[in-house]
Specification:
heterodimer; A: 10 helices; 77% helix; B: alpha+beta; eight-stranded antiparallel beta sheet; 6 helices; 8 strands; elongated
Chain lengths: 177, 271
């Protein structure tokens, strides 16, 4: 970030090389639309470049900030898209690629270890609980929206999400401490 | 509510699903920078954001990197932050001696030169002192402005990052204009951000309005893009969220207007 603050475009390239793919994966999962996902990713990195001085203020690590910003932008897109869909049939022509999995040349061991933990945890959760968490995180739904979408009681949904998040916290406990 | 009782809700808050009394309590703790809840929520944000890794791995097109870097190069922010290393060094005048045969004339001339030189030196020093005072004054006011901006940016970042903020895009009526982003938070206010805004004459200002479901628009804030064309501000929310039908921005005379006097330039409707 220091180099980005100095307007070193090479630093942004390095940052993109490190985070471009996970950010794109997240945005694509939410937006479900490849070309829009790329636009959002571009927007996120440009925002990072233009407002690098603002990020220093938080003094937190960059990764959560970057992913939170990407998630917010993608959810923003999703809400707009839903609004449009309410008015007329969406005619998106892009086809979702079959989740292209490529080898990770960066070899970011820490992140891939965490990814393993998260995937293992999500797989271990009962289907409905996993679905509730996914609806909250990837679709930005509230407790009541999830309950309505899944046809479950509000209390049940709250308990699923709370339980799932506590397990997530425990699972990541070592890494986050 | 005690921090210990709020702790189990940190992750739900970070995920954006916490509602009701617990959310209000937690936000009150965060608003007063509670030493337990603030780092607790920050950590919870880190935990929650790890769900990102549950997304199927996907590869963006090879052209995306190039497009980002092209846009960065075209961005006004790319210009280096070279600082003018300022003060010009004035050359001291060189005394020129005169060659006279009579020693008295030499002494008198030398005395006159020394006196002149001393007076000039004193004047220079006074000038330098005045300049230094001016620079100090300028630096102090710049420092104050920077601190104000940092505080405002911090507030903007807090509102933007809050899972309870409703993100809105204010679409420009003029397609050549950039989009304005708003984040509407029930307690912390409404944050407005924009980039690449055109400069405005000092006699005009932008004015943000809450458009109620019924009744007249209510002024929220007046603002100007800064020299870099950026906007970052937080204004208090003076209307219940469920009564706001839209956010709108108009171009008004400096100082703002009690009601919009020009057509809406940006607008976002709220469901």
């Amino acid at each position: 970030m220091e180099r980005i603050l100095q307007h070193d475009s090479g630093a942004l390239e390095a940052l993109y090389d490190r985070y471009g793919r996970p950010v794109y994966s997240l945005v694509l999962r939410i937006a479900q639309h490849p070309s829009s996902a790329e636009e959002i990713v571009q927007d996120v990195f440009l925002q990072l470049w233009r407002s690098a001085d603002r990020f220093q203020i938080s003094r937190g690590p960059l990764e959560p900030w970057l992913f939170t910003m990407a998630r917010n932008r993608a959810l923003d897109f999703l809400r707009l898209k839903r609004e449009k869909q309410r008015r007329r049939e969406d005619s998106d022509s892009d086809i979702l690629p079959s989740a292209v999995v490529c080898p990770d040349p960066e070899g970011d061991i820490d992140r891939s270890r965490r990814a393993e933990k998260i995937r293992a945890l999500m797989t271990s959760l009962p289907e409905a609980q996993r679905r509730a968490i996914e609806l909250a995180f990837f679709e930005g739904m509230s407790h009541s929206e999830i309950a309505s979408s899944m046809g479950e009681a509000l209390g049940t949904v709250k308990s699923w999400i709370r339980g799932g998040l506590l397990r997530l916290r425990e699972s990541l406990g070592e890494a986050s401490s | 509510m005690e921090c210990e009782r709020l702790a189990p809700f940190y992750e739900e808050y970070a995920l954006g699903v916490l509602e009701g009394k617990e959310r209000a309590e937690l936000e009150a703790h965060l608003a007063r920078a509670c030493p337990k809840c603030t780092p607790g929520v920050a950590k919870a944000r880190w935990v929650v954001v790890q769900l990102t890794l549950a997304a199927p791995d996907a590869q963006p097109s090879s052209g995306l990197r190039g497009r980002i870097m092209d846009a960065v190069k075209a961005s006004p922010g790319t210009a280096g932050t070279s600082r003018a290393v300022a003060p010009l060094k004035k050359q001291a005048p060189q005394a020129q001696g005169a060659m006279f045969p009579v020693w008295a004339w030499i002494a008198a001339a030398t005395l006159a030169l020394v006196t002149g030189y001393t007076i000039r030196q004193m004047n220079n020093q006074n000038e330098q002192l005045a300049q230094l005072r001016k620079q100090m004054k300028l630096a102090t006011s710049q420092n104050q402005a920077l601190q104000n901006q940092l505080e405002m940016d911090h507030m903007v970042a807090m509102v933007m990052m809050s899972p309870d903020s409703m993100p809105l895009k204010l679409m420009p009526k003029d397609k050549a204009m950039p989009m304005v982003h708003a984040y509407l938070h029930p307690h912390m206010g409404v944050a407005i951000t924009a980039d690449q805004m055109p400069s405005m004459p000092a006699a005009r200002t932008l004015q943000l309005w809450f458009v109620p479901k019924s009744g007249k628009p209510m002024s929220v804030a007046i603002f100007h893009p800064d020299a870099a064309g950026q906007i970052a501000l937080v204004a208090p929310v003076n209307m219940p969220r469920n009564e706001i039908a839209a956010l709108a921005v108009t171009d008004e005379p400096a100082g703002g207007s009690p009601q919009p006097t020009t057509p809406i330039a940006w607008m976002a409707q709220i469901n």
